[in-house]
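Q: How would the C-alpha cells look for this protein?
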Amino acid sequence: MEGLRPFTIGTDWFTDVDDAVAMRVFARAHRAGAIRIEGVCINARMRYSCASLDAFLQNEGLPELPLGIDRGATGIRGHGRYQKRMAGSPGSHRANEACVDGVRLYRAALAGAEEPLEMAEIGFCQVLAALLDSPPDDLSPLGGRELLARKARHIWTMAGKWDVPGGAYNYNFGQTRENMRAAHHFYEHCPVPVTFLGHEAGKAVITGGVLKGRRDDMLALALRDHGSKNGRSSWDPMLALLAITGGLAEAGYGAVYGRAKIDPRDGKCRWVPDAGGNQRYVLKTRPDGFYRDAINEIIN
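A: Here is the predicted structure in C-alpha cell form.
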C-alpha cells in the first residue's frame, strides 16, 4: 500500500451487509496507518442509522470519527436487518439527530484537508451531488465544484454494471428518482477523477464466512442477522480494498477509461469509452480467490 492518505467514506448502511464488511476493511486500514478516515456519511436514513454505525465503529476501535447523514434519505426501499442489534449494544451511541448534515461533513473535510482528499462511495450519491452544487459557507469561500476540484484527489465508487452492452440498471444509481437524478448530475459534472467498481466485479467473490459461528464479533452477528452467515458478495469490500491499495495493478485490476452515463429517468448506466477520459471502471485480472482471500484476511 501507499503511505497514509486522508479519506471520507459514504455508505448507505442499510439493506445489505457488504457495507459492514467494507467498513471493517476501511477501519482496519485506518488503524494500521495505511489511510486516515476523516469522516463517514450515511446516505440512506432509518431509525438506527447513526447509532448502529457509531456502535460498529466504536467496536472497531474508532470511537471519535465524525459522522454525517442525509436526513432526507428516507424513501429507500427495503429494511435494515442488523442495525437494531448494533444500536442496542452496550455503550452510548450517537443518534441521527446528533450527526451533522452530510454535505457539511464533506465540506468540512475538504476545507480542512492539508493534502488532497480521497473519497470512497459505497452507497448512493445524492449527498455528493448536493456537495457539488453547495454554495460558499463559513467552512470555505469556495462553492462545491471548485472545492472538489482543488481539494479532492480521487473518488472511488462501487456502482454501475458495465458488462452489459447498451447499458443496464444498477441498484446504487436507481433506488429513487432522487438517486437517479443525483447520479446523472454528479458523474456528468464531477471535476475529480473517478474509479468505478461495478456489480459484475464483486458478485462472485464471497467473503465473511470465515467469521461464521463467532458470537462475540459484531460483524459476524451482522452477517448472521442479514441471512449471510456463510458470506456475502463483496461489492463494497472489493471497492474498499481497491481504494486503500490505490494502485490498480497491485490491487489486481485493469481499467477501461471513458465516461459513465447514467439516465436520470431510470438509473440505467452505460459506458462511453475514451482513452483520455478521467473516469474508469475496473476489470479483474486475478482469480476471484485472490480478492476473497485478501478481504477475509483483513476482516478475520
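The chain has one domain: 5-299.

The CA atoms of residues 38 and 258 lie 29 Å apart.

Upvote if useful.
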